[in-house]
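Regression check, adenosine monophosphate case 360:
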Amino acid sequence: MTPLAPGATVGILGGGQLGRLLALEAAKLGFDVHIFCPESDAPAARVSALHTKANYRDEDALKAFAAVCDVVTYEFENVPVESVHTIESAGTMVRPGAKSLEVSQDRLVEKTFLNEIGIPTVDYCTIETGESLDVALAGFGSHGILKTRREGYDGKGQIMLGGARGKDGLEAARTLAKDVPCILEDFAPFEREISVIVVRGDAETLVFDAAENHHESGILRRSSVPAQISDGIRKAAHHAGQTLAEALGHIGVLGLELFVMPDGKLLANELAPRVHNSGHWTPDACDTGQFEQHIRAVVGWPLGPVTRRFDVVMENILGPEIAGVPADYSGADRLVSYGKRGAADRRKVAHVTRRIGPVQ
Ligand code: AMP
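Current build output:
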């Protein structure tokens, strides 16, 4: 696309912390940001020039939003695909496009797509009734993870089955599987979890160094870089990220989460068609961070270098831990707070990064 000049308006669907961090970077590059989200007091809206408070399915509001934005992007993957089509039909480009949403909104579509483009995932099967759950579970040696096909995040909509952790889950899983379409995933006895953050612009695709991720109760707690993996695994992970961005025709940043298996094989867990929590270290350790890269890509600018200058650890601050800010985190190199009202239990409310030392 013809690069947008500073002064143009970037629209963002979604008003959470990712939108807020994107909006701040867009502002630094000289763009006005217009947030579209249903909440009135959203973290992103409070740092942006403009805010449309409307439902994502409000066609008139979407058309009016499209009319005043020069390009539109999104900060979360559950934006209805139809909303993207409405904005595009009104003549405004949405970057990344609908395809990245379509693939990432449904775990079955996502896993099928990943395998088709040569990025293997754990074994899985579709679950439509409580009965098929029992049959499928037996096929995986009586253990696995039941996940809703849509709208799960941070371990929500998931039930671990089998083994010590899954003793009580079967009844709950049968009920869940009767209510909503699910998939059953084989349990991956991974050695570690890593992710790659990819940015694809009009002219090139770049990949940030892989991060190693540590979860607690399904929520990302900490990302450290470099990941403790061999060069071969690192290259394979970067290659998978690049392949995915190109296969989707994705413009902007995406995150790909991978399991490293004991034999060194990589299995994709899930993709996020947006800036990603496990990339929050990038602004502090790299020449150009993920938020600036995403804005550069969607406005048609050349990307910045992704060269990493520091070894780094990023830690999420959850819910009530915000009470410890800033005292508990005084040793951190960077504290980023999301300005969320009310610190609901275990919600991500801020993060810190610590530079361990320069890359040797
Ligand atoms: P998800 O929401 O799918 O990213 O899952 C959250 C976390 O649950 C992952 O980061 C893993 O730690 C764990 N997990 C998810 N799926 C599996 C699986 N098939 N096998 C083992 N652990 C899993």
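Comparison notes: The pocket of adenosine monophosphate is lined by residues 122, 145, 152, 155, 185, 187-188, 193, 215, 218, 257, 269-270 (CB under 6 Å). The longest strand covers residues 348-358. No diff flagged against the previous build.
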